[in-house]
Write a structure and sequence with these properties.
InterPro entries: LRR_dom_sf. This protein is α/β, with parallel strands linked by helices and 540 residues long. The chain has helices at residues 4-20, 26-50, 55-66, 78-83, 87-94, 97-100, 117-132, 151-163, 178-189, 257-265, 313-323, 340-343, 347-353, 368-371, 397-407, 431-436, 448-459, 509-518; strands at 102-106, 138-143, 168-176, 197-202, 223-227, 249-253, 272-277, 295-296, 302-307, 324-325, 331-335, 359-362, 382-388, 422-429, 492-499, 527-531, 535-539. Among the domains are: 1-50; 54-100, no CATH class; 358-540, no CATH class. The protein is globular, with a radius of gyration of 28 Å.
């Protein structure tokens, strides 16, 4: 039986043939037709295997398919396309209520002459899905465009959604236009006893007073994702009222960072908080002074904080690190600037999570010292370090070598991160900064290629033949000695290097391949993968 990968390849080739067909000569078209028929026959062979598959299993497979976001690209519901494959599939689709409980409504970005026919076409689809799903809870997704219909045009569809609000389990809206925003607020005020998850993306700033209080009648709501467009910062959203005392997951995009901190402080049961702001406004309304601090969230396990440098970033980032405590934090993604002078002031924050933290992802640091915070967490099992010199001119190429040398285990020394199992390194250097940064040359630095090999050998506790290592005798150690037994072996390593210096990568892949060839013991039992994006992965 063909794998999903092979099926995807066949489907892609059929699509390529269809795209090229009209532009080819007649003789070439005949060859393509023959090839297309052959490919379709291969796909039909897969379908024949499923004819004997029990409907319960086939239904479960189809349910997984229709939940994949990549299938939401056509106006016709995916379920109709699946049901047209063969008689057995069609019978399974139309007799499985759980398949109809996943409602995906899509309308195109272009609407000619203000026609709302595409939206009206969604009404019978919605009615059919609600009918065929029986009394099951439904997961509703509106994959809309930025086209904003009138209230009259949207009313018929929203009537159906509001009428069945008590069955709504999850809601996802890709582009909440002003008209649909008004309908969304009405929905948020109705009784939603089964609603658990909401993911909504505004394409404008909500200007209704009602938009400040949402889902007050949704007792099960625990997961909330809200996104504002890139060009909006508003003081209104500081008063956004949400059922904060019941949320366990909160994701915010594009919100004023002081608003984000305020909303974070109101969620005592939060397990996951994800915030990002990828723009640099000239001015932000500052509400930090209104927060009740200090704030301790005892249940928070995953924190992602990513914010570009602004005039307010130092105050906001420093406030988070100095006034919030997360004693149960296990995963920290830090994508903000930490001033070197502030690191010592934030010691209580780091000390609070020292024993609980397992995964650390550091990026957008501007100096070597600020990236060095990983050394404060000796219990982590996964570390991700990203250096982008285009955004961090304080870094030198040699800092990349230093980071790997610090992570390399050395005999007869106190080494860092004894429990490390996964390591991800990404270096991006720009020729522009290499020239303006004081001539931090590459040729005279320590070999990055060889340093990687040494790191892998040490982290795998694999002895290196001294004869092969003239300049690194210290790696001649007994990997089975008692000294190394409490160090975990590295199980996964990812390295990515990008250098824009005249298009000439300074990471020498030929040298690296030579080292791998000489010291192949470290990769002998591993899955080694090289990609075209100047990166490689090793898994043991």
């Amino acid at each position: 039986m063909k794998s999903a990968y092979n099926i995807a390849q066949i489907t892609a080739e059929i699509q390529t043939i269809d795209d090229q067909f009209e532009s080819l000569r007649f003789e070439q078209q005949l060859r393509l037709i023959e090839r297309r028929l052959h490919l379709c026959a291969e796909l039909n062979a897969v379908q024949s295997i499923t004819c004997s598959m029990p409907p319960e299993i086939l239904s479960h497979i189809i349910h997984t398919l229709i939940q994949d976001p990549s299938t939401h690209l056509t106006i016709a519901p995916t379920l109709f396309c699946v049901g047209a494959v063969c008689t057995h599939w069609r019978r399974t689709v139309w007799t499985s209520p759980q398949l109809w409980s996943v409602i995906q409504l899509v309308w195109p970005a272009l609407v000619i002459d203000d026609s709302y026919a595409p939206l009206k076409n969604m009404v019978p689809f919605a009615q059919l899905f609600y009918k065929n799903s029986g009394s099951l809870p439904v997961d509703l997704s509106l994959f809309s465009s930025r086209w904003d219909p009138t209230a009259e045009q949207a009313e018929e569809l929203m009537k159906i959604i509001l009428k069945n609000g008590k069955r709504l389990r999850s809601l996802f809206v890709t582009s909440l236009t002003p008209t649909f925003s008004a309908s969304f607020i009405r929905l948020a005020y109705t009784e939603l006893p089964l609603l658990e998850t909401v993911n909504v993306r505004w394409d404008h700033c909500p200007d209704h007073e009602d938009s400040r209080s949402l889902f007050c009648h949704a007792p099960r709501l625990s997961c909330l994702h809200m996104t504002l467009p890139d060009n909006i910062f508003t003081d209104k959203l500081f008063s956004f009222k949400i059922p904060s005392n019941q949320l366990t997951t909160l994701h915010l995009r594009g919100f004023n960072p002081t608003h984000a901190l305020y909303m974070l402080s109101l969620c005592p049961l939060l397990v996951e908080f994800d915030y990002s702001c990828e723009r640099s406004p000239t001015g932000l309304p500052n509400r930090i002074g209104t927060l009740r601090v200090p704030v301790t969230l005892t249940l928070l396990e995953r924190l992602r904080w990513s914010i570009l440098k602004t005039w307010l970033h130092e105050e906001v980032d420093g406030f988070l690190l100095k006034r919030f405590a997360f004693p149960s934090l296990q995963e920290l993604t830090w994508g903000a600037v930490i001033d070197d002078m502030e690191i010592e002031d934030c010691e209580p924050f780091f000390a609070c999570i020292e024993n609980s933290l397992k995964v650390l992802n550091c990026y957008r640091a501007q100096t070597w010292k600020s990236l060095d915070i990983w050394k404060k967490f000796d219990h982590i099992s996964e570390l991700r370090l990203s250096i982008d010199r285009r955004n961090s001119p304080g870094f030198k190429f040699s800092d990349g070598v230093k980071s790997l040398e610090c992570l390399t285990l050395q005999p007869n020394q106190v080494n860092l991160l004894p429990r490390l199992r996964s390591l991800y390194i990404s270096f991006t250097f720009s020729f522009l900064f290499a020239v303006s940064g004081g001539g931090d040359g590459y040729k005279n630095e320590s070999s990055l290629e060889f340093t990687i090999i040494c790191l892998l050998y040490s982290r795998r506790r694999t002895a290196i033949d001294v004869d092969l290592v003239d300049d690194f005798i210290s790696l001649d150690f007994d990997p089975n000695s008692d000294h190394w037994q409490h160090y975990q072996r590295l199980e996964e390593f990812h390295f990515e290097f990008s250098d824009e210096a005249d298009g000439d990568r300074k990471f020498d892949w030929d040298d690296f391949d030579d080292y791998i060839g000489e010291f192949d013991e470290v990769t002998r039992d591993a899955k080694f993968k090289r990609t075209l994006l100047s990166s490689f992965d090793v898994m043991w």
